[in-house]
Design brief:
Elements: E1 2-11, E2 14-24, E3 29-33, H1 40-47, E4 55-60, E5 63-64, H2 70-75, E6 78-80, H3 93-101, H4 108-121, H5 137-150, E7 155-159, H6 167-182, E8 186-190, H7 194-200, E9 203-208, E10 211-216, H8 218-222, H9 225-230
Parallel strand pairs: 3-8, 3-9, 6-7, 7-8
Antiparallel strand pairs: 1-2, 1-4, 4-5, 9-10
Helix pairs in contact: 3-4, 3-5, 4-5, 5-6, 6-7
The protein binds adenosine-5'-triphosphate.
Keywords: ATP-binding, Nucleotide-binding, Transport
Pfam families: ABC_tran (PF00005), BCA_ABC_TP_C (PF12399)
GO molecular function: ATP binding; ATP hydrolysis activity
């Protein structure tokens, strides 16, 4: 499905990613974790076309998407959320979700049907007329998931969707991410909230200072000395 091979990214003289390789599979959650500044957002920006790598390749179902523009990458089936939920606060929930349905829908009616289906899947139907800027943060995160799924993506990149939520809200969003995974989508999730990583990740990829230091189950990577060192002083890996 998604294959990232030997990817490197520099900003001027600053090497942010070096020789990064990982895969993400359909119907699985791959969690990207690592300390602040490790390069996680840069990696997601490379996969979604917002940045171009200096070396390496990114393929989706065998098709090379390296360096494609974001809209083209989206067209290929890569949907993403953003840490700050864009400038769509004035749109209502229905409009937000319908917008991304146009990746596959060829008519207004078709897009609206997809939006209705996703809003119902995510229990958001009753909020459809509310402005995005007017609903609680946890609900915005669920709308983000619904927007992503309305694109009928092959891969959904979730960038810290749990940030700032209460543990009870995290549980609700975990259920929604499971629904995305169970629909057969490859989920790649940058996440600092361990409650979510533990509950969702089939595979964990640990980045530190721009390189992958461990890959495996959460139990496996938690035992890795490089991972422990990367997190030294934080409670992130116990
Ligand atoms: N556009 C840019 N220009 C220059 N440096 C950048 C740019 N974007 C990111 N960086 C630097 O690249 C490094 C990795 O940043 P990145 O945001 O990818 O890390 P991260 O792992 O996502 O961190 P966080 O968990 O804090 O979001 C940091 O040192 C950051 O300052």
């Amino acid at each position: 499905m998604l294959e990232v091979r030997g990817v490197a990214k520099k900003f001027g003289g600053l090497r942010v990613l070096t020789d990064v390789s990982f895969e993400a599979e359909s119907g699985q959650v791959t969690a990207l974790i690592g300390p602040n500044g490790a390069g996680k957002s840069t990696l997601v920006n490379l996969v979604s076309g917002y940045l171009t790598p200096n070396a390496g390749s990114i393929t989706l179902d065998g098709k090379d998407i390296t360096g494609m523009a974001p809209a083209k990458v989206f067209g290929e089936g890569v949907a993403r959320t953003f840490q700050v939920s864009g400038n769509v606060a004035e749109l209502n929930v229905f409009e937000c979700v319908a917008m991304s349905a146009y990746r596959t829908a060829s008519s207004y009616r078709g897009a609206n049907e997809i939006a209705e289906e996703e809003l119902k899947r995510f229990d958001l139907w009753q909020y459809r007329s509310r402005a995005l800027g007017d609903i609680p943060t946890a609900m915005v995160r669920i709308v983000d998931c619904a927007r992503g799924m309305a694109a009928r993506p092959k891969i959904l990149l979730l960038d810290e969707v749990m940030a700032g939520l209460t543990p009870a809200e995290v549980d609700i969003v975990i259920e929604q991410v499971r629904a995305c995974r169970d629909a057969g989508v490859a989920i790649v999730m940058i996440e600092h909230v361990l409650q979510a990583v533990n509950a969702l990740a089939d595979r964990v990829v640990v980045l530190n200072q721009g390189t992958i230091v461990a890959t495996g189950s959460m139990a496996e990577v938690s035992q890795n000395d490089e991972v422990k060192e990367a997190y030294l002083g934080s409670a992130a890996v116990k």
